[in-house]
């Protein structure tokens, strides 16, 4: 529920398990529109897994969801990778954070995107999915799974996957190609037999993810987990 009366969020905040205060420790612009934010705090009891997200109270009546891209419980570190896409409350909140700011949050919750038993995984998304991809990388490597990251990104962000150390990445310009079924059908990941049985995790823009899912369903035997992170004209998801 991204928007609701203030009292509903007040009650939810009191009832859900809390995180100790998080303090902004470091900020890094990976491009003019993508920011890495490092928080420090007492995260010994942090419940962190692939797909963990935090609901940030970005206004009295607004909550926006962001993925924890990395966490180190012992050393008290938690990171996000955020898309500063415009004047939305979440984007503005993340843009205005300064080193030393303190943020009060509930414990992360987790979407179960990750299937440890899958032999091959394909993770697709855009700028909003970079944090999820970053959280996937160490476990995929540790468990010797075959994986590919596929992104659609604005030109100014095309170098970010490499900056984040993401391997096996293919980056496409965000120019509407993932809205065209015929174009998606021609992607090597769809055409080669190698990835026919893969697990596909589709996030980022709703319309792109839905188009990709239609093609996967029609042309492969893969399993799909779709979770759109944003949709044109819609506040929060
Ligand atoms: C489980 C989950 C995890 C997420 N993790 C991350 C994350 O780690 N990093 C991250 O950056 N985002 C992440 N998102 C996406 C983020 O919550 C949305 O982009 C959210 O809409 C941003 O809120 P806002 O207040 O800035 O904009 P809103 O008020 O929600 O929207 C204002 C306008 O901006 C548009 N808009 C929203 N997001 C984008 C965008 N990315 N690009 C272009 N236009 C946009 C909307 O369509 C709307 O027209 C996640 C979402 C979910 C559901």
TrEMBL record:
MF GO annotations: oxidoreductase activity
InterPro entries membership: Cbr1-like_FAD-bd_dom, FAD-bd_FR_type, Riboflavin_synthase-like_b-brl
Database matches in SUPFAM superfamilies: Riboflavin synthase domain-like
UniProt-recorded name of the protein: Oxidoreductase FAD-binding domain-containing protein
Organism: Pedobacter caeni
Domain FAD-binding FR-type, chain residue ranges per copy: 17-115
């Amino acid at each position: 529920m991204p928007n609701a009366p203030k009292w509903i969020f007040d009650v939810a905040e009191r009832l859900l398990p809390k995180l100790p205060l998080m303090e902004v420790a470091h900020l890094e612009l990976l491009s003019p529109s993508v920011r890495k934010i490092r928080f420090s705090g007492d995260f010994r009891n942090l419940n962190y897994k692939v797909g963990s997200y935090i609901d940030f109270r970005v206004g009295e009546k607004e909550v926006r969801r962001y993925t924890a891209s990395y966490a180190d419980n012992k050393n008290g570190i938690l990171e996000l990778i955020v898309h500063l896409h415009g004047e939305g409350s979440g984007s503005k909140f993340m843009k205005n954070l300064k080193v030393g700011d303190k943020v009060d949050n509930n414990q992360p919750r987790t979407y179960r995107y990750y299937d440890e038993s899958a032999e091959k995984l394909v993770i697709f998304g855009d700028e909003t999915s970079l944090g999820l991809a970053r959280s996937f990388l160490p476990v995929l490597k540790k468990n010797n799974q075959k994986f590919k990251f596929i992104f659609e990104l604005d030109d100014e962000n095309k170098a970010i996957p490499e900056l984040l150390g993401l391997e096996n990445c293919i980056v496409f310009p965000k120019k509407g190609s993932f809205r065209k079924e015929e174009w998606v059908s021609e992607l090597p990941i769809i055409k080669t037999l190698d990835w026919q049985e893969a697990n596909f995790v589709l996030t980022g823009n709703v319309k792109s993810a839905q188009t990709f899912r239609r093609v996967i369903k029609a042309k492969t035997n893969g399993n799909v987990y779709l979770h759109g992170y944003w949709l044109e004209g819609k506040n929060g998801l």
